[in-house]
Amino acid sequence: MKFFVDTADVDEIRELNDMGLVDGVTTNPSLILKSGRDIMEVTKEICSMVDGPVSAEVTATDYEGMMSEAAVLAKIADNICIKLPLTLDGLKACKALTAAGHKTNVTLCFSANQALLAAKAGATYISPFIGRIDDMAIDGMELIAEIRQIYDNYGYTTEILAASIRSVNHVKDAALIGADVATVPPSTLKALVKHPLTDKGLETFLADWQKTGQKIS
Ligand code: E4P
Question: Which residues line ligand 1 at a C-beta cut-off of 6 Å?
Fold first, then answer.
């Protein structure tokens, strides 16, 4: 499973990238707001730090506006992936941008039928939002399973990018179902390493090592 990091915070991306955990980055207008940075400047910096795709989202809602914003964003770097909303105009832009050789990420997916449309429009990635569905007391993970089955039924190559991840169990469950990618907030990505038995075992080893009076040098 590939890990994308869901943030526009360059310090967080650098830290995780140095551990080899970053296969790509996803941003959105809310994450740009949170970063306090200029979209062009911060996206360029992120693109220079990671080798994988960096999703940058258009904010226009009509086809022509999306295409014109996509042209600006695509100039930032070769690893830009154009993020488009799951609307009819977004699908039309997806089709045109994919045909022109750009990577595309169709975002704000909340149903299997929407995911089917994105695959037909040639999306590189479809982003189903697990956490926001869970927030409505509906199991978001079921959507990942439905999309996996539909894409496998017909051999669609659009990658399932599990998004709106809120917990370590979301990552595990999406991996078990076979999502191709999970885009994960930095704190959740770091939390994947945690296990109380690892901490307890390390504590015991260090205490015993002290008692040997030895040093590795
Ligand atoms: C990723 O592409 C999405 O923008 C992101 O995962 C949304 O997450 P949220 O629902 O926690 O805002």
Answer: 6, 26, 28, 107, 127, 129, 131-132, 163-164, 183
